[in-house]
């Protein structure tokens, strides 16, 4: 007699195994709060990932630190090359202060080209050190909003004598400043203790980082599903800079436009919206050095923050509050109702308002990010308890 024993069917067994795996994956995923870092290029998203590793995991091992050395040296070369290249290209151009001693160093760097050398010799570092000491080179550096220069330039060029040593191992601050372009999606997993007022225990997080340049933004949608909160980063100091990929487009304006698309778009409406107005240290330095926001945002002239919001006599305070107001204004620009097609009928559906939480941040400052993230942690847990997001 033939017996139809399903237990012996390999395909059936594999099917049940897959079902169990999917159920397990779903259970695991339900235990994690998913955070998505969004923003244009060079706003500090990867630096936030690094900070999570420092604050909530065990930081960086000795091997991980040593792995960053080639990238730090690449950052040095990219920085000095871009600075000396643009001395003649700016209008008006910038002259070397010590033409006699440093012209040969300019020629040495320009001969290497934009790609870093195979070997970073003592001769190479001597040329870089001499150039960085030249006041003409510093003047060109101070005009870096007129061309493309990574924010870590000054940090690493100030440490030439340390980095050139064969025994050099990057410290935590060096790792935070190290610039490596993000071209793929990365994820970090960490845990935080939950205070008793939210039930105690441990909250588990997955944080995703995606590339910010225009060519990488099409990848964003692949990680939208199941996101509990968006951390949207904007470099506040970008108000006088243009995009690498489009030098006619103001960086801050691009960030605000993308934020508007994300805020009112349909894909992340159920996610909490948290904004980091990042690089406050650079913004403050620019304002104190006389950079004017109204040159790029004419409505800044008529903006007047209240005394309750901040110090009305501080130009820096006014600048950061102006940018926050720009975000608030976006949340008030409600689009027309959406058209829904249900069972052959057309219906209009209003798009609901939602809160945003704006923080002023310095991504390279671990204490600042820890304090801000503790606040974010509370926001996410409150939303979880009220079922507003989760």
Structure description:
The chain is of the alpha/beta class and 390 residues long. It folds into two domains: 24-60 and 183-386, Rossmann fold; 69-169, GI Alpha 1, domain 2-like (Orthogonal Bundle). 43% of the residues lie in helices and 13% in strands. It has 14 helices and eight strands. The strands form two sheets. Strands 2-3-1-4-5-8 form a six-stranded mixed β-sheet, sandwiched between helices. A two-stranded antiparallel ribbon has the order 6-7. Strand 4 (229-235), helix 11 and strand 5 form a beta-alpha-beta unit. Helix 5 crosses helix 6. The longest helix has 21 residues, at 10-30. The radius of gyration is 25 Å and the shape is globular. The mean pLDDT is 88.
CATH architecture of the largest domain: 3-Layer(aba) Sandwich
Percent helix among the residues? 40-55%
Instruction: Give me the Rg, rounded.
Output: 25 Å
CATH superfamily of the largest domain: P-loop containing nucleotide triphosphate hydrolases
Number of strands: 8
The major beta sheet can be summarized as: 6 strands, mixed
Instruction: Report how far the terminal alpha carbons are from each other.
Output: 55 Å
């Amino acid at each position: 007699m033939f017996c139809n024993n399903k237990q012996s069917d390999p395909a059936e067994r594999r099917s049940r195994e897959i079902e169990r795996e999917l159920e397990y994956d779903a259970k695991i995923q339900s235990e994690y709060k998913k955070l998505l870092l969004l923003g244009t290029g060079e706003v500090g998203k990867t630096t936030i990932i690094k900070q999570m590793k420092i604050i909530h995991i065990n930081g960086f091992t000795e091997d991980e630190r040593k792995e960053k050395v080639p990238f730090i040296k690449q950052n040095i070369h990219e920085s000095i090359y871009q600075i000396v290249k643009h001395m003649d290209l700016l209008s008006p151009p910038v002259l070397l202060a010590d033409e006699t001693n440093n012209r040969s160093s300019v020629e040495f760097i320009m001969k290497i080209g934009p790609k870093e050398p195979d070997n970073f010799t003592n001769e190479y570092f001597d040329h870089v050190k001499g150039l960085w000491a030249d006041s003409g080179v510093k003047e060109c550096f101070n005009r870096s909003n007129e061309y493309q220069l990574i924010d870590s330039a000054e940090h690493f060029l100030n440490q030439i004598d340390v980095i050139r040593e064969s025994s050099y191992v990057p410290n935590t601050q060096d790792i935070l400043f190290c610039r490596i372009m993000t071209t793929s999606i990365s994820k970090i997993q960490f845990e935080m203790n939950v205070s008793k007022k939210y039930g105690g225990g441990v909250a588990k997080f997955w944080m995703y980082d995606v590339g910010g340049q225009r060519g990488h933004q099409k990848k964003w949608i692949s990680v939208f599903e199941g996101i509990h909160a968006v951390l949207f980063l904007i470099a506040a100091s970008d108000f006088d800079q243009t995009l690498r990929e489009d030098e006619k487009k103001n960086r801050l304006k691009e960030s605000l436009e993308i934020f508007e698309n994300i805020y009112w778009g349909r894909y992340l409406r159920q996610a909490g919206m948290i904004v980091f107005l990042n690089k406050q240290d650079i913004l403050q330095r620019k304002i104190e050095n006389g950079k004017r926001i109204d040159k790029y945002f004419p409505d800044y002239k008529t903006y007047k923050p209240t005394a309750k919001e901040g110090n009305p006599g501080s130009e820096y305070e006014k600048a950061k509050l102006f940018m926050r107001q720009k975000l608030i204004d976006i949340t008030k620009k409600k689009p027309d109702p959406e058209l829904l097609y249900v069972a052959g009928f057309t219906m209009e559906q209003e798009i609901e308002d939602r809160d945003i939480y704006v923080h002023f941040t310095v991504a390279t400052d671990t204490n600042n990010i820890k304090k801000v993230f503790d606040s974010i942690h509370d926001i996410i847990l409150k939303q979880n308890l009220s079922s507003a997001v989760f």
